[in-house]
């Protein structure tokens, strides 16, 4: 995707506020061999761009001052309650340096799987994006995952799929996370019924009174164990 940015001369809270009033969004471009550059973008164009998945998970071409640079979207700061982008950060892309990104997962085929078609199971997409590491040229816009082979009681793990060429999973405490879980309708119904029953269960007055007395007794012992204050 391509977008146009403009050089920004002034910085600071006041300058950024005045810029937003004119329909522009302040931003910055950093990384690579160049110095950080202050930029501004047309807010409406940027607002429409961020609605596209590719804008968040692919190498972008930024036109700035008559030159084109390859960048990645790194951060968006939104207004607390208005549909307004307050600031945007981009990082320059070095073709010789590996990058780390989160890319979306696109699932398909679950309606044709034995789990859904024959076993009437429920399929839950546990993960909707994946942290990966790769060279810029190998960065996928998304990772497609075919669920047509799902079976009852057999969740889909990361190691069950083949990542695109040159792409590695960035493990953050989980080497083989569950991507998709599969459960029968009866199991889901039983779990919901158990949770509802627990929430609706009446409180036993005797049990509550006994618990309160036990807590008070423990507090009294703790107070008695404290050393007396010196006069």
The helix/strand series, from N terminus to C terminus, equals EHEEHHEEEEHEEEEEEHH
What percent of the residues sit in helical stretches (DSSP H or I)? 25-40%
Report the uncertain regions. Answer: none
Shape annotation:
extended
Strand content: 25-35%
**Distance between termini?**
77 Å
What is the gyration radius calculated from CA atoms?
27 Å
Which structural class is indicated by helix and strand composition? alpha+beta
Mind summarizing the main beta sheet? 6 strands, mixed, barrel
Number of strands: 13
In spatial order, strands of the major sheet run 1-3-2-6-5-4
Number of helices: 6
Chain-wise SSE layout:
Blueprint: E1 2-7, H1 13-21, E2 24-30, E3 37-42, H2 43-49, H3 53-56, E4 60-64, E5 67-78, E6 85-92, E7 99-108, H4 114-117, E8 121-125, E9 129-134, E10 143-146, E11 156-157, E12 168-169, E13 178-184, H5 185-200, H6 205-225
Overall description:
With 231 residues, this protein is an alpha+beta fold. It contains 6 helices and 13 strands. It has helices spanning 13-21, 43-49, 53-56, 114-117, 185-200, 205-225, and strands at residues 2-7, 24-30, 37-42, 60-64, 67-78, 85-92, 99-108, 121-125, 129-134, 143-146, 156-157, 168-169, 178-184. The strands form 3 sheets. It has a 6-stranded mixed barrel with strand order 1-3-2-6-5-4. The mean pLDDT is 86.
């Amino acid at each position: 995707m391509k977008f146009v940015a403009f050089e920004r001369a002034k910085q600071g809270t006041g300058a950024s506020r005045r810029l937003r009033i004119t329909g522009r969004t302040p931003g910055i471009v950093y990384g690579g061999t160049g110095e950080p550059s202050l930029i501004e973008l047309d807010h409406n164009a940027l607002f429409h761009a961020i609605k596209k998945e590719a804008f968040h998970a692919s190498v972008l071409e930024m036109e700035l001052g008559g030159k084109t640079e390859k960048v990645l979207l790194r951060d968006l700061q939104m207004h607390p309650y208005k549909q307004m982008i307050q600031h945007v950060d981009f990082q320059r892309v070095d073709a010789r340096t590996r990058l780390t990104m989160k890319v979306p997962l696109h699932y398909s085929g679950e309606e044709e799987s034995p789990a859904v078609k024959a076993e009437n199971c429920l399929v839950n997409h546990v993960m909707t994006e994946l942290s990966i590491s790769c060279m810029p040229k190998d960065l996928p816009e998304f990772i497609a995952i075919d669920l047509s082979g799902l079976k009852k009681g057999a969740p889909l793990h990361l190691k069950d799929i083949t990542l695109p060429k040159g792409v590695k999973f960035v493990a953050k405490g989980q080497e083989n996370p569950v991507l998709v879980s599969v459960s029968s309708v009866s199991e889901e119904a039983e779990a919901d019924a158990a949770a509802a029953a627990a929430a609706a269960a009446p409180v036993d007055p005797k049990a509550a009174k006994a618990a309160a007395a036990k807590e008070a007794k423990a507090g009294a012992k703790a107070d008695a164990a404290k050393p007396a204050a010196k006069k």
